[in-house]
Structure formats: C-alpha cells, structure tokens
C-alpha cells in the first residue's frame, strides 16, 4: 500500500514537472532558459538541467541536442566560475574565519586532495548529480587553477547532459520518464563509486 502511494506521488510529480517543461519547450527563449537553469543549478537551484533538456528534446525535434548540451555546459561552467571567484574573495577577506571553520587538519587534507586531483575531482563533481557548487566554492577557497576548474566543469557537464540529451532526442518521452524516475537511484550509485575512488586514491592504490 505504501509502495503504491509512493509511486502515485512520484507519477504526480513527474506529470507536474512535465507540464511545466512542455510550457518552456514551446517558447523561443528555450535556449537562454536552458543556460539560466544550468547556471542556477550550479549555484543555488536543485533543478537538474539535463532533466529540462531531456523533456524539451522530447517535444522539440527542431532543436539540436548537441546545441542544448553545449549551452547547458556553458551555463554550468559560468556558475562554477562565479562560485570560484566568490570562494576566493571570501577566503582572502575572511581568512581567519575559514581557517578556524575548516580546521588545519581537514583543510590541509582537503586541499591536498583537490590539488593533486583537481581536474578529476571537479570533472566528477560536474558529471554527477551531486551538489557540485560545494566543489566549485572550495576550489576558489583553495585558489586552484581557474582555467582547470572551468574546463573540468564544462566537460563534466557536457558529457553528462550530452548522454541524457542524445537518448531523449532519439527515444522521446519514454527516455524522459525513465530518466526522471531513476535519477535518484543513479545518483546513489555514483556517490558510492566516487567515495570508493577517493578511498582508493588516498590509500595509494590508484
């Protein structure tokens, strides 16, 4: 009974999101809208841009899935760049606070992990549906290479959105609904893989 109730709630939520995205897909500003959604997702919003791209492409076959993937990646990279700048500025102006908050041991360990695996860490953050805004912010706090941060976010998000966009473009609503339904499960699997990677990396196995 509880399982059926949960499925009904999920279907209702999927339908609600579907109606909203269908509205977005029918307007000329859909491309700029994708950019804004991707930018906001990296900074403050929980709405995943690939879900919007997937739905838009299931309704609009006149828009290139490659173009929307690139636009989404540019929006995410721009958001990451802004968080990097904010993180760097706040650390410089409030260094004592950050040192006390992060702590010498944790800060040194985290900074070392980022410094030795900058591209991989940020690429994985952008590729997975994790709160990548934390990674972008900390990359500014630790003053990592700005070009590497932006490039890692761009390609990580480009591949992630590109995969979803491709299947949505060619398989339509069935792919869209499958993606909406299984995003949470895929996220959990990816989180486990990332944690495993970090553990193996810190132990010198990889």
Percent helix: over 70%
- Largest sheet composition: none
> What integer value in Å does the Rg equal?
19 Å
Low-confidence stretches: none
Shape: globular
Please provide the ordered H/E string of secondary-structure elements. Answer: HHHHHHHHH
Write a concise keyword list for the protein shown above:
0% strand, 206 residues, 9 helices, mainly alpha
Verbal overview:
- The relative contact order is 0.13.
- Helices cover 85% and strands 0% of the residues.
- The N and C termini lie far apart (46 Å).
- With 206 residues, it is mainly alpha-helical.
- The longest helix has 57 residues, at 146-202.
- The protein is globular, with a radius of gyration of 19 Å.
Brief overview, please?
By secondary structure, the protein is mostly helical. The chain has helices at residues 2-25, 30-43, 49-59, 65-93, 95-102, 104-116, 118-127, 132-141, 146-202. It has nine helices and no strands.
Tell me the layout of helices and strands:
Blueprint: H1 2-25, H2 30-43, H3 49-59, H4 65-93, H5 95-102, H6 104-116, H7 118-127, H8 132-141, H9 146-202
């Amino acid at each position: 009974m509880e399982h059926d109730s949960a499925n009904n709630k999920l279907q209702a939520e999927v339908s609600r999101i579907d109606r909203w995205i269908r509205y977005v897909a029918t307007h000329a500003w859909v491309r700029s809208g994708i950019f804004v959604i991707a930018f906001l997702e990296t900074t403050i919003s929980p709405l995943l841009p690939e879900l919007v791209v997937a739905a838009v492409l299931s309704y609009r076959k006149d828009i290139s899935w490659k173009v929307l993937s690139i636009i989404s990646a540019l929006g995410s990279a721009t958001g990451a760049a802004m968080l990097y700048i904010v993180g760097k500025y706040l650390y410089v102006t409030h260094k004592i606070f950050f040192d006390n908050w992060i702590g010498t041991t944790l800060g040194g360990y985290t900074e070392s992990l980022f410094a030795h695996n900058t591209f991989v860490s940020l690429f994985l953050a952008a590729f997975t549906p994790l709160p990548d805004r934390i990674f972008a912010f900390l990359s500014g706090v630790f003053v990592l290479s700005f070009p590497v941060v932006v490039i890692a976010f761009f390609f990580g998000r480009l591949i992630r959105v590109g995969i979803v966009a491709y299947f949505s473009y060619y398989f339509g609503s069935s792919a869209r609904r499958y993606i909406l339904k299984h995003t949470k499960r895929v996220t959990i699997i990816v989180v486990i893989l990332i944690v495993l990677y970090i553990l193996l990396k810190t132990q010198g196995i990889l």
